[in-house]
Amino acid sequence: MSQYHGIVIEQSLRGRDLPAGARVVAARQVGAWRFLLVTVPETEIEEHIRTIQATMVTDDAWYAHYFLGEELVVVFRDASFRVGTEPSTWGPAIAHGQARGIRLEQLDFKPRTVPDAEAFFGEPRFLGSVILESLSDPTPLQGLTPIHVRREEHPDDPTPLSGMSGGTTSPSRGCVSWRRPWRR
């Protein structure tokens, strides 16, 4: 079954919870924003679009975007657009975003291909490094295998990380790399 890959900024979601059916396969923090790379089965994309629109915050303008092959789906809280991955097809989506106050340079819909996503999120076989203290919902990590734990000593916090088989549990805070097979 084909999968759409999607880019969702965690801060765009009320409660920061993804709709059921979406699976986080990578995460990257860029400044204040946490980018999530998700997959959604092709057969579930229409329901997912409706659900993510209902889940988006209402006090600011945000969008998510999904890609499969040459198709790009741009989802705003109040509209969605099916365009191509070529910028020449984006006119209606860009106009809608700008009318809602999103700056043109933020309407670049990147990444929009699997190779772009691999480059943006890093090694494709890893969920990425997750700072444990900033993880608001550990659900996306369920069923993953911790493969590397990097810890930095914090003398004021001697609490070990718990529930991490295969990882270091010495006193300190740190980040963990998780593995999940990359699916195209």
Considering the chains and any ligands shown, give keywords for the structure.
184 residues, alpha+beta, 2 domains, 6-stranded antiparallel sheet, 3-stranded antiparallel sheet, 3 helices, 9 strands, globular
How would you describe this structure to a colleague?
By secondary structure, the protein is α+β, with helices and mostly antiparallel strands. The chain folds into two domains: 119 residues, no CATH class; 53 residues, no CATH class. It contains three helices and nine strands, in the order βββαβββααβββ. It starts with a strand and ends in a 5-residue tail after the last strand.
In short, what is this structure?
It is built from 3 helices and 9 strands.
Distance between the termini: 10 Å
Strand tally is 9
| Rg, alpha carbons | 18 Å
Instruction: Indicate the overall shape.
Output: globular
Order of helices and strands: EEEHEEEHHEEE
Mean pLDDT: 76
Continuous helix count: 3
Q: What's the arrangement of strands in the largest beta sheet?
A: 2-3-1-4-5-6
Compile the SSE list and pairings:
Layout: E1 3-9, E2 23-30, E3 33-41, H1 45-55, E4 63-68, E5 71-76, E6 79-84, H2 91-99, H3 114-121, E7 126-131, E8 145-152, E9 173-179
Antiparallel strand pairs: 1-3, 1-4, 2-3, 4-5, 5-6, 7-9, 8-9
